[in-house]
């Protein structure tokens, strides 16, 4: 068995109570090769100390799932480099980093680790070099390669636990997403981060819900038209309209020229999108957080994309009051106000019927759908509180109120369990 002795930070051994690294230790390379499922990195004291905050957050068993996982990151620019960096720092045990491009001087405003010394070197190799000093126990493979149909098998083989699409070229992006769906691989896609400035507008949602992002719209159209894929792919996108437009491309002589004349690869952009470096970095951090919690098995409900305004919530509140008076003779048991209706509709039911939570109605379609929705009690024997109201279409509400909860539980156990879980979350959120 091959073993090598190291000094400094690239070692495995014991540390003192202050967290100081020992001067010398032994790292067993052979034990780390092959399947991560047969090797437990957290048994090493240095690794477990480095990941101690994650362990405290997830618990040891869930963090072990992270360290045994394999993630592929394709596209290592402003978004991908930050996503890969935090996956590494979170303890992902194996990373495949893929990008055909090189670090440029202008990319230093948004790249996670590149320095001026890295300019001109492949992005994949740049990350691999820096990552090896951050978490040397991670198995890092770098491919200086363009993703396409001929490289698909090489890049997507090996049963990765997650694939991160951080590509900014629509043709390549669509092909990758379609391949992941076909192969049954979990994938998270980043959309346009350029020309934005508001970090509070960034969301994670199904591709079908990212209606405000131009790149998402194009990808969604292409996937539906060319591959018959309607949705089911989570994406990170901004609800903010771009703050700046594409810039005219100027060649070496300062004159406006055709950017396609300077493309290394046909179809790829050439430095004409203004980018505030913080936004792609936040996109990458959001991606890493989403993936790590998924790998750890932690359920984190994402902020729903609900395009309703205060007037819609007022309408639903008033509709509830009128229905209670009609059904029970009084609205005295309605113990929610408009703000709590907003929480119920947006956070619990995402602006859709509890019987159809798929994001089919988006944008103005959701506005119109409110005309068919109402809030009704889940358990008719209890008051209309935050944890006892569900959103249904009119006819669904009529059927629901003709049944008992025992009927629902017997006839539709899955639906009963889903609603019970959602309303339990409301209890926890409101401390009841």
UniProtKB/TrEMBL annotation:
Pfam family name, one: ThiF
Domain THIF-type NAD/FAD binding fold intervals: 52-314
Keywords, alphabetical: ATP-binding, Ligase, Membrane, Mitochondrion, Mitochondrion outer membrane, Nucleotide-binding, Transmembrane, Transmembrane helix
GO biological process: cyclic threonylcarbamoyladenosine biosynthetic process
Membrane topology qualifier: Multi-pass membrane protein
UniProt-listed SUPFAM superfamilies: Activating enzymes of the ubiquitin-like proteins
Family statement: Belongs to the HesA/MoeB/ThiF family.
Subcellular location: Mitochondrion membrane; Mitochondrion outer membrane
Keyword Nucleotide-binding tagged: yes
InterPro entries, A to Z: ThiF/MoeB/HesA (IPR045886), ThiF_NAD_FAD-bd (IPR000594), Ubiquitin-activating_enz (IPR035985)
Main localization, broad class: mitochondrion
GO cellular component: mitochondrial outer membrane; plastid
Function in brief: Catalyzes the ATP-dependent dehydration of threonylcarbamoyladenosine at position 37 (t(6)A37) to form cyclic t(6)A37 (ct(6)A37) in tRNAs that read codons beginning with adenine.
Protein name: Ubiquitin-like modifier-activating enzyme 5
GO molecular function, one term: ATP binding
Cleavable signal peptide: none
């Amino acid at each position: 068995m091959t073993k090598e002795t190291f000094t400094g930070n690239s070692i495995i051994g014991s540390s003192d109570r202050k967290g100081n690294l020992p001067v010398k230790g032994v790292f067993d390379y052979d034990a780390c090769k092959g399947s991560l499922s047969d090797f437990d990195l957290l048994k090493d004291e240095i690794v477990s100390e480095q990941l101690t905050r994650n362990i405290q957050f997830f618990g040891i068993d869930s963090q072990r799932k992270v360290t045994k996982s394999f993630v592929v990151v394709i596209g290592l620019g402003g978004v991908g480099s930050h996503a890969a960096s935090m996956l590494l720092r979170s303890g992902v045990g194996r990373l495949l980093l893929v990008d055909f491009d090189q670090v440029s001087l202008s990319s230093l405003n948004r790249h996670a680790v590149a320095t001026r010394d890295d300019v001109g070197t492949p992005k994949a190799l740049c990350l691999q070099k820096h990552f090896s000093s951050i978490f040397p126990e991670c198995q890092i493979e770098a491919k200086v390669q363009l993703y396409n149909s001929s490289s698909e098998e090489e890049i997507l083989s090996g049963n990765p636990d997650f694939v991160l699409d951080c590509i900014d070229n629509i043709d390549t992006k669509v092909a990758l997403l379609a391949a992941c769906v076909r192969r049954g691989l979990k994938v998270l896609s980043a959309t346009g981060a350029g020309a934005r400035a508001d970090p509070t507008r960034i969301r994670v949602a199904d591709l079908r819900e990212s209606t405000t992002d131009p790149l998402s719209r194009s990808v969604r159209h292409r996937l539906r038209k060319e591959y018959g894929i309607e949705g089911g792919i989570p994406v990170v996108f901004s609800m903010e309209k771009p703050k700046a437009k594409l810039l005219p491309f100027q060649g070496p002589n300062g004159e406006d020229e055709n950017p396609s004349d300077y493309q290394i690869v046909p179809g790829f952009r050439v430095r004409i999108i203004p980018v505030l470096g913080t936004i792609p970095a936040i996109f990458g951090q959001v991606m890493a957080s989403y993936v790590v919690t998924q790998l750890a098995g932690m359920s984190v409900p994402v902020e729903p994309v609900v395009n309703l305004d205060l007037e819609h919530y007022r309408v639903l509140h008033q509709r509830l009051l009128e229905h209670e008076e009609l059904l029970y003779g009084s609205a005295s048991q309605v113990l929610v106000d408009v703000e709590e209706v907003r929480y119920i509709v947006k956070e619990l039911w995402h602006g859709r019927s509890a019987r159809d939570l798929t994001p089919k109605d988006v944008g103005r379609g959701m506005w119109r759908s409110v005309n068919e929705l109402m809030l009704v009690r889940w358990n008719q024997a209890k008051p209309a509180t935050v944890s006892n109201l569900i959103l249904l279409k009119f006819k669904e509400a009529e059927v629901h109120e003709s049944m008992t909860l025992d009927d629902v539980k017997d006839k539709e156990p899955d639906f009963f369990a889903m609603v019970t879980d959602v309303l339990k979350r409301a209890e926890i959120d409101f401390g009841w």
